[in-house]
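INFO  loader      accepted 1 record
INFO  loader      residues=379
INFO  predictor   begin
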Amino acid sequence: MFTKSQALQLRWRQVTAAGRVDDDMRFAIWAPAVKIWREHIWLGAGPDHFDWRFPAYRPDTVQRRPNRVHNDYLNTLADWGIVGAALVASVWIVLALMLWKTWRYVRRLPADLGARKGSGKFAFVWGASLGLAAILAHSFVDFNLHVPANAFIVVVLLALLSSHIRFATERFWVGGGLWAKVVATCLFLLPAAWLFEQSCSRSVESHWQARAARAPSFSTKQLALLEKAFAAEPKNGLTARGIAECYRVQSAEGGANYRELGLKALEGFGLAMKLNPLDPESSARYGWCLDWLDRSGEAWPYFSRAEELDPNGYLTVAKVGLHFEEIGDFAAARSWFERSLRLQPANNPIATSHFRVAIEKLTEAAKQGAGSGVTSTGR
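INFO  predictor   done
INFO  writer      dumping tokens
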């Protein structure tokens, strides 16, 4: 089949380009996932936390945001630890035991292949089992079970396969009384009601976020829409950061009320850091606000925190360089911009342009005999 499939052959050539397996940086992402798990071995770093924990362990060869581990097994260990992974594994183990027990009751004998008696039980159990096996195999190199459509199909197949155990024993052909049905219904409705409330809140938030994305960047209109989104979900650190960034940019544009807007931005980034302590962007931008408000003496701890959270992120490193440029320490700024350019030599406009500025300032100071005593040019 492989030799006759052009699609499979093309995919194989793409994966094995240049005489080696092209893992698309998956192996580089897996190593940080293992480190995250080892630091939170039993309960994991937290649900959906890998993407926020990753920057602290980022290899210098990976500058993109991975979002997932691209390996569902490692992703489960990183997010949920051994306890969570064991719970997930128990579902598959129980399913395998049930299939083993059910198999001979749904399987036809060779003599029955042409008979009309029976049903498609065997075909379904065999086909669904192969489908789940394919998903499990592919999950070694991707995040299938984090894709809602795939996860929904897997859950449906698990439920339908589990139901076939009734053909192996009479124990499951039972009916419940009225009170048993009432209790079962309540147990179903309670989480369903919670999920419905969460879905409604998320829908409102998504509506305002979508409208904000279409509004002019950092405008008063976008700010108002983001505030409505934050009112719908006041625990979203990204929305809080977006609101603060609107205030920061508006303050940077100048005007009589620039200081008031800067203080609002400072407050917003502080809230964003509280909601999401793992976000290096909020820390760096908090430091920027302090620089802008002539409080540079207080700024370094926040830039240091940003660098601690993302030590190999070229953007984070470049933003630390901007801090030193702002306070007039062009020698330090140059070293940070150089570091950023080593991490990302191309498509790095901040470090590229400001590295030139630092070199020009240092050269000018050397010519004037001022050494490293170059002062900031101000705003």
